């Protein structure tokens, strides 16, 4: 038999193409999937919180507790605006998580780019001009003492005018996390925190020919650090080497796609309004604190205890909230609603354990914690000790509430957390303070108890709403490529 002279074609490679998105989030063991998203977010937030603690410690020792109060009051005002805008990116995160869960790369990238355009416009066209001119009025609104206003005004104006870097960082971190990559936002966040810390040490205290800017130096360092990190992040987004990228090619333009922007606002606007409601509640709470007989001392104690030390609980819980949102959203997009439900409950247990651990320090070592910030004034310390002991219990409630909030938002139910926040962050705590003030003498412990009541209300309502399961039937889409 004649030997065949026909060459045999090489066999096609059977090596499977690596999926762009991490499928372990929607397949396999759930605990590692949750932890894979949660721990980088938690670590980033804790390190960021520690950077704020260092800033307050430096300002407290160099400027005095008036500087601590100025930063606290300014951040509370700034957060009303920045939380609203960054919360709009929840709409982006809902879409990205669903499309990533379904493996639709094209829709993921289109959504991220339109969210980027939205962030640029709002930062430069809205926040910068309006924030600069209304800052003095906002400081008067919260009853900041004159010496506190003098320190706070330049800080607040700098934060408003140069907010663009922070906005881009929040937007890209949310996009990456929702697509299943939590490590890249962690690296970006830690880099920004370290850079911010170095800049703040130099700018707050001064070094060589660089003068000491005091409280203002803290704002300068924050804006410079976030701006540099944002520039680097955009270069990586353009390169296409991340799990999300800027879409390019035939049929893609660089202008706004109003259908996608409309969807981002549809899911994000309720969360943005929720952020405003929560922080307006915080601003009015500051007004109640400002009405106390020893307002400057109470504001300083509130700033350090609630804004900084309590962040060791809230920032960790916010990381778990993001993990719950991403994992629940991706699993719902992949058609696994029961797995989404289980993920949120597991994240809540992680949050409760973490809050209990930190709360022990609040309960047992409050004076030592306050001393880190140079707080030795007897009145400030006494008020701060009261608040930390209340927060040791309040942290358990808010950690559970935040993870269930993440579950609702990640699956597309962004309206329910809005209504819950209005009740728990405005109606309950402010109502209690108002009634006490009208019928008796409002003392610091009354305000701290009102905060605890609000957190308890939010926890109960969030758990009940999630268990109703209406989030299982929410549909998400943005249509086909233009």
The helix-and-strand class reads mainly alpha
The N- and C-terminal alpha carbons lie at a distance of 61 Å
Q: Could you state the oligomeric state of the chains shown?
A: single chain
What is the gyration radius calculated from CA atoms?
24 Å
Averaging pLDDT over every residue, what do you get? 85
Work out the helix count.
Answer: 15
The helix/strand series, from N terminus to C terminus, equals HHHHHHHHHHHHHHH
Total domains: 1
Unreliable stretches:
1-16
Largest sheet: none
Large-scale geometry: globular
Number of strands: 0
What fraction of residues sit in β-strands? under 5%
Helix content: over 70%
Mind explaining what this structure looks like?
With 482 residues, this protein is mostly helical. The protein has one domain (29-473). The chain is 78% helix and 0% strand. It contains 15 helices and no strands. It has helices at 30-62, 65-101, 105-141, 146-161, 164-178, 183-205, 215-239, 258-290, 295-309, 311-333, 337-364, 366-371, 378-410, 415-439, 444-468. It is globular, with a radius of gyration of 24 Å. The model is unreliable at 1-16 (pLDDT under 50).
